[in-house]
Amino acid sequence: MAAIDDDFVMTISDNDEVPDLEDAGIESSDDTKPQSKRHKTTKHKGNGTSNKEEESEMAKGFMIDLDADGFDAVPQTLDFTLARASLKKRNNPGLYSSLDEKIAIARRAAKASKKSAAKEQDSDTAMNEEEEEEEKEEEEGEEDFGTQSEEDDGSVSEDEEEGSESSESSDEGESDAESESENSSSDDESEVDAEEEARKRAYFASSDEVPEGLPESFTVMNLSRQIMKGLTKLGFAQPTPIQAKTIPVALLGKDICGGAQTGSGKTAAFLVPILERLLYRPKHVPATRVMVLCPTRELAIQCHSVGTKLAGFTDIVMCLCVGGLSIKAQEAELRQKPDVVIATPGRLIDHLRNSHAFAIDQIEILVMDEADRMLDDGFEDELTEIVRACPRKRQTMLFSATMTDNVDKLVRLSLNKPVRVQIDPPKSAARGLIQEFVRVRSNKDEDRTALLAALCKRNVKTKCIIFFRSKLAAHQMKIIFGLLGLRAGELHGNLSQEGRLQALEQFRDGHVDYLMATDLAARGLDVKGIDTVINYNMPTQFAQYLHRVGRTARAGRTGSAITLVGESDRKMLKMAIKNSPKDKIKQRVVPAETLNKYRLKVDDLVDQVKSVVDQEREEKLMKDAEMQVTKASNILEHKDEITKRPRRTWFQTTKERKMSKDTSGKEYAGVNKRKH
């Protein structure tokens, strides 16, 4: 693929079509010309059908109902088949019981002890009454859980206002001081804002680069037949707004900063133009020309799955490089110089430093998905190292639902007059999302577990993701839900890659109703049919709140988000109300008698939870001991081979890496605190 001419300038009017690739200085080839030998032998196209049969199949695939109410902006189901093929093999997987088995044993033991106690006290009837009462509670459903709309003045509700009068009066002095400081510094802030806006105008490209008239169909974008067939196979009927605005600009080789609400189809927005341009690459010289970076393994796996399906009718080869999968298999794939590499920053740098015959000095397109998280969450040094290894003359595309426009951070990535493509207002939730808030009374933070159990036992019963701030809290709640008889899975960083994929598959297939997750699952992941998102804690950054609630109400669908809000979450609550339509904000009320009932149930589970946790700790110690024995045995048996093996290196020392991550986290927290 030839380089883009720096002097090439395009303007798109309302009636203009997207220019051909030849006009942009990119090598072109006619679909009627014979393809290269590599293209003929590809496994994706070796189906023996003639051109006429392909055209008829193509015509059938494009019989689309243009009057349909909606579309799927992402594939209908997550597909982890390719990722599972590269999983590391587990040693002796059947020696230890799973967490679900431990929970089942604890439940049976608790039931047996209750029955024996009931027999001793001759209170079998009381046991039966208790079980009947539980069944009755589950049947009542929404009756005890009222919801009410937000008031026009932006308050949560009159009840909450009355309940929090004392706390508000105690905060009057603090709020007056805050308002005085805000007034005193308003002039300085306005001057800084004006300077920042001037810098942005000078840094970003003119808005004329983005076409005003959005194409209503992929057929008017002059895309190749192979790409159109891939889009049809995935069920893409019409381009979403972010796709319609991004694809024409990306085909011209322009740098892009793209932002749109979660579930709007950003993945296809950068993959479609990448695949289209790769069709015209010089095929006689294999090289890695595209690099896609993702902050989490699961997002990279999802992106790789979408790209593989979109490229199913081409000869474009993709490679997935993330942690938790076989590094040897990845090295073998990289030696074949795949066209596209989708990776997480850490594993990519590992391959750059330790895998022979792999380099990114021929990269022509660099994409960063969820770029704001990678810029802010401790990845800055890794990104700097990756950008330094890439050629300066390249196309760079950044995408996120909360895309940053901080010029200083973007300059580090060497963007050249990037085009800003912002579809929805920044800091806004999806239109079909109903946001509900449950108040956690002051000094009653321990009631969160009881509130969550009551909500899930009585109201939210299927397809729900529950977000926690810590891995430990998510794991403990998984145990509590299991003991309560609720089918739950967990997704966080303490799990193996196989465990993480298994949790997502179980949740996707409906084998579990609840997914206890940290913010690992808040970015980009799409599971079709998620009805509800629950925030056990309000996140500390509003952008993270938007990403969490963006797991539902995706691609034009509807959904609800329930957040447990304490006294310390007032500012975040006000931001959520301010950036959402009034008719989409509700307060959910949990009656006091219901809360007390579930508080007692949760308290009764303390000993059982402790028993399960103790069993897990004992098994972990045994596994660690076995691992050390196996390691020592391997060293004795394969000493010569191990000593001759080159040591894997990193671009930072352990101390520098820890210091960099801590500094980045503190800076990120400080920036967001100032913003809020």
Automatic annotation (TrEMBL):
Biased composition (Basic residues): 35-46
Gene Ontology MF: a single term: RNA helicase activity
Keyword Heme: no
Region (Disordered): 1-61, 107-198, 646-676
Biased composition (Acidic residues): 1-29, 127-196
All residue ranges annotated as the Helicase C-terminal domain in the record: 432-596
Pfam families: DEAD, Helicase_C
Listed Basic and acidic residues bias regions: 654-665
EC numbers for this chain: 3.6.4.13
Keywords: ATP-binding, Helicase, Hydrolase, Nucleotide-binding, RNA-binding
Helicase ATP-binding domain ranges (all copies): 247-421
Record Gene3D superfamilies: P-loop containing nucleotide triphosphate hydrolases (3.40.50.300)
Coiled coil region boundaries: none
Catalytic activity: ATP + H2O = ADP + phosphate + H(+)
Ranges spanned by the short sequence motif Q motif, renumbered to the chain: 216-244
Superkingdom of the source species: Eukaryota
Domain called DEAD-box RNA helicase Q: residue spans: 216-244
Family classification: Belongs to the DEAD box helicase family.
Name used for this protein in its record: RNA helicase
Species name: Coemansia umbellata
Designated gene of the protein: DRS1
